[in-house]
Design a protein that fits this description.
Order of helices and strands: HHHHEEEHHHHHH
Number of helices: 10
Number of strands: 3
Strand order of the largest sheet: 1-2-3
Structural class: mainly alpha
Radius of gyration: 56 Å
Helix content: 55-70%
Shape: elongated
Largest sheet: 3 strands, antiparallel
Length: about 425
C-alpha cells in the first residue's frame, strides 16, 4: 500500500494572515468601544447637574409657597389690626356722635339760611344795582358765597391798597366800586343773617335723628366686621392658590424628573452594554497578544534577559504555539517570568542644575542689563524660560518612561547643545550692555 510521505504535525501553525486580521478586528472594535465609553463621564456630570437643577427648582417652589403663605398672613393681620383700631375709635367716639350730629345739623341749617339771603338794593345801603350785578358776575349772589373782606394791594400793583372779598371756595376777588364803606355794609349784612340763622337753628337732636345716628353706627360696625371677614376669606383664597401652584409645579417637576431618569437609565444601560462588550473583546485579545506578541506585549518584554539557546550539533527547532493556548498568560499579573528587570539608564539629577539656573534667571532677571532696551530684556527672559521648560519637560518625561518600562531613556542629544548655546548667548548679551 501507498504510505503518506509525511505524517501530520501535532501542532498545525495558524494562518498568519487570518491571525493578523482577527487581532486587527479586535483592536479596532476595542478602540471604537473605548471611544464611545469616553462620553460616559460627561453624561454622568450632565445627569448630576440636571438632578441638582431639579432640586433647586423644587426648593425655589417651596420657598415661593412659604413666601405666599407669609404674605397672606401678614396682609390678614394688617387688615384685622386696622379694623380693630377703627372699631376702638368708633366705640370711643360714639358718645360724642350726637354732639357732632347736632353741630352738623346746625351748620347745614345756617348754610341753607345764608343761601336763601340774596343780595338786594333794599337791604344793602349804598350798593346800587350795578354793583350788585358786578358782584353776581364775580360769583357773589347770596350771603353764603363769601366769608369776609380784607385790604390788600391792587391786582396790577398800582393804585395802593384795595378791598378784597373772600369767597367760600377760598379765592378772593376785587370788584371796582367796592370801597371800605360799602365792604363794611356788605359784611354787616351777612353777619345779621348769620345771627338770625344761629338763633333759629335746632338746639337738640330729635328722635328721628337719634335713630338715624344709631342706624349709621350699626351700619358702620357691620361694614367693619365685613371687612374683617373679607380679609380672612382673602387670606384663605391666597393660601389655596399658593398650594395649588405648589402642587402643579411639583407635579410638573416630578414628571420631568421621571422622564429624565428614564432616559438616563436607558443611556446608562447602553454604556453598561458597551463596557461588557469591551471587556469581552479585551478578554479575546489578551490571549492572542500573550501568545503571539503585540504592541503591549513587546513593550513589557522589550528588556527581558535574552535566554541562551543550548549549543549542540543538532539544533532543535522551536515549535510555534497553537492559535488558542491551553493556559493564556495575563500580562497584568506580575510574575517572575513577566516582571522586567531594572536595566537601562535614566536622566541624572545633574540636569536639574541648568534647569534651576535658567528658571531662576527668568524669574530674577539675571543678568541685569543696564541701559538695555525692553526687547533685549524680554528676549533674554523668554529665552531662559523656554530653555528651562524644554529641559525640564524632557527630563520629567524620560524619567517617567524609565520608571514604567525600565528601559534606557536618555535626554535628547540636542539638550546639551541648548544648555551651552543659550548660556553663551546670555553671556554675550550681558557683556554687550554692561
Amino acid at each position: 500500500m501507498h504510505q503518506n510521505s509525511a505524517a501530520p504535525s501535532a501542532h498545525t501553525p495558524p494562518d498568519r494572515a487570518a491571525l493578523r486580521a482577527e487581532r486587527r478586528r479586535l483592536r479596532e472594535a476595542i478602540r471604537a468601544k473605548r471611544s464611545l465609553l469616553k462620553g460616559r463621564s460627561a453624561f454622568e456630570k450632565v445627569d448630576e447637574r440636571r438632578k441638582f437643577k431639579a432640586a433647586v427648582a423644587r426648593d425655589r417652589a417651596n420657598r415661593a409657597h412659604q413666601d405666599a403663605l407669609a404674605r397672606a398672613d401678614r396682609d390678614k393681620q394688617q387688615k384685622q389690626q386696622s379694623v380693630a383700631a377703627q372699631l376702638r375709635a368708633f366705640d370711643s367716639d360714639q358718645q360724642n356722635s350726637e354732639a357732632r350730629e347736632l353741630q352738623l345739623l346746625r351748620r347745614q341749617f345756617i348754610d341753607a339760611a345764608l343761601r336763601r339771603a340774596h343780595l338786594s338794593v333794599k337791604e344793602l345801603n349804598g350798593l346800587g344795582a350795578g354793583l350788585i350785578n358786578d358782584l353776581a358776575a364775580r360769583g357773589i349772589r347770596t350771603a353764603a358765597d363769601f366769608t369776609g373782606v380784607s385790604r390788600g394791594p391792587a391786582p396790577n400793583g398800582k393804585g395802593g391798597d384795595v378791598i378784597w372779598i373772600h369767597l367760600s371756595g377760598g379765592r378772593k376777588v376785587h370788584v371796582n366800586g367796592i370801597g371800605e364803606h360799602r365792604a363794611k355794609a356788605l359784611v354787616e349784612w351777612r353777619k345779621s343773617y348769620v345771627t338770625r340763622a344761629e338763633e333759629r337753628a335746632p338746639k337738640r337732636i330729635g328722635l328721628a335723628d337719634r335713630r338715624r345716628i344709631e342706624e349709621l353706627a350699626k351700619q358702620r360696625r357691620a361694614e367693619l366686621k365685613a371687612e374683617e371677614t373679607a380679609a380672612e376669606a382673602a387670606a384663605n383664597e391666597t393660601r389655596s392658590e399658593a398650594r395649588a401652584t405648589l402642587d402643579e409645579t411639583l407635579a410638573r417637576l416630578a414628571k420631568a424628573a421621571r422622564d429624565a431618569d428614564r432616559k438616563a437609565a436607558a443611556k446608562r444601560a447602553q454604556y453598561d452594554v458597551l463596557a461588557e462588550e469591551l471587556a469581552r473583546l479585551e478578554a479575546e485579545l489578551d490571549p492572542l497578544d500573550a501568545a503571539y506578541g503585540g504592541l503591549r506585549f513587546r513593550r513589557r518584554t522589550h528588556n527581558r534577559t535574552v535566554r541562551t539557546e543550548p549549543s549542540s550539533a543538532t539544533t532543535v527547532p522551536r515549535q510555534r504555539p497553537s492559535f488558542t493556548p491551553s493556559r493564556p498568560v495575563r500580562l497584568d499579573k506580575k510574575s517572575p517570568e513577566t516582571e522586567p528587570q531594572a536595566t537601562g539608564k535614566r536622566p541624572g539629577l545633574l540636569w536639574l542644575i541648568p534647569i534651576v539656573f535658567y528658571f531662576g534667571s527668568a524669574l530674577t532677571g539675571t543678568p541685569v542689563l543696564v541701559g538695555a532696551p525692553m526687547w533685549a530684556v524680554a528676549f533674554l527672559r523668554v529665552g531662559h524660560l523656554v530653555a528651562a521648560s524644554y529641559l525640564f519637560g524632557h527630563w520629567i518625561r524620560r524619567r517617567r518612561q524609565w520608571k514604567e518600562q525600565r528601559a534606557t531613556s536618555l535626554m535628547p542629544a540636542i539638550s546639551i547643545h541648548i544648555v551651552w548655546v543659550w548660556l553663551i548667548v546670555a553671556v554675550v548679551i550681558g557683556t554687550h550692555y554692561e
